[in-house]
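Section 3.1: Structural characterization of target chains.
Under the original work plan, the team committed to producing a structural model for every single-chain target entering the pipeline before any wet-lab resources were allocated. The record below documents one such target. The sequence was received from the expression subgroup and is listed exactly as submitted; it comprises 205 residues.
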Amino acid sequence: MNEFDAKAKAWDSTPGRAERARTVADAIRARVPITPDLRALEYGCGTGLLSFALQPRLGRITLADSSAGMLEVLAQKISAARIRNMVPLRLDLSADPPPAERFQIIYTLMTLHHIPDTAGILRAFFRMLEAPGYLCIADLDREDGSFHGPDFTGHQGFDREALKTIALQAGFGDVACETVFQVARETAADLKHFPLFLMTARRRD
């Protein structure tokens, strides 16, 4: 059992997570032409909070995560809500081949900073998108390490300009970043607010 398996059952009850997902969903809808015929992939979906907020306006949604515990909770939520256009998928693109299906929009929320190879995952997303297609990445600005604490081994957020450059090198165009949320978190010193940006990009060819 990994840390996300252990946290899965209580994930949705953590204060602020549902509000964050709704706010990011609103930001995506404001920047990307969401329509009911779009095939979507949420990568690192957890319990699907973001996809549930987008679900009424999308077509088929594949919700991918490497955590069996998160996907179990997600499947229960989909069944309870009797939703027909959301499909869970166990997937870790650092080890598994990409699915055969191609998508018209891929989005992530607080996932990218957990993935060691940022350039590699953005290249994978580019290959998995049809043209025209959209990528939406919601994640943390560069921070001092206090968000996760000293034992965290992922990225301490991102410099926006550096991330935009990586996206351009992966083949994307129309890359833009904007602050969409502030994550409040108690750190060892005090309550801090961490900016959350949304990066949008397009595959044109």
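Helices lie at 3-7, 17-31, 49-54, 68-81, 118-128, 160-169.
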